[in-house]
Amino acid sequence: MTISVLVVCLGNICRSPMGEAVLRNEALKRGITNIHVDSAGTAAAHIGEDPDERTIEVCGTKSVPISHSARQVRASDFTSFDYILAADGSNLRALERHVGRREGSKAVVRLWGSYLPDNKPIQDPYYGGLDGFTEVYEQCVKLSNAFLDEVAGKKSYGDNSTDGTRCHRAGMEDTP
Ligand code: 4NP
């Protein structure tokens, strides 16, 4: 089976396209190919834009491929994605208020940081310098691996030799 993950921030030009690129890259590094990753913003201000040039620069420095056109979260995301991961509490609350949540949502909606014990948000780097984007990158690497550990499992998801029941259970894991 394939699991699908939507990473969400405010503008969908800084944190979430980086999170999308990093999660896909970390999954690939584990040999996991049956994962679909996308990103979106809770706001509409940057629809159609490329990722912020600082996000592109940091991903380039780390050799992480990135290509995304900003879009806003839509109601169908709540039925088409298994997981929707919010960058911070403000975006989490916006997702929880979203009309899509009331229309047969199947998605597990969580703060991405909740996959680590410190439960930290990804701070908005937009008004700062490149250092902030590098910090976001490092956090995305840690959160990607925490997510993959918990949801996909170290072996059961990426390793096709394991039994399907375990894969299914891992993919359908529920909110805490
Ligand atoms: P993002 O960052 O939510 O990580 O994409 C931001 C991008 C744009 C703005 C704020 C945050 N803005 O105010 O335009």
TrEMBL record:
Key word Methyltransferase present: no
GO molecular function, one term: non-membrane spanning protein tyrosine phosphatase activity
SMART domains, alphabetized: LMWPc
Active site feature: 9 (nucleophile), 15, 124 (proton donor)
Subcellular location: Cytoplasm
Domain Phosphotyrosine protein phosphatase I, first and last residues per copy: 3-150
Record protein name field: Phosphotyrosine protein phosphatase
Species for this entry: Suillus fuscotomentosus
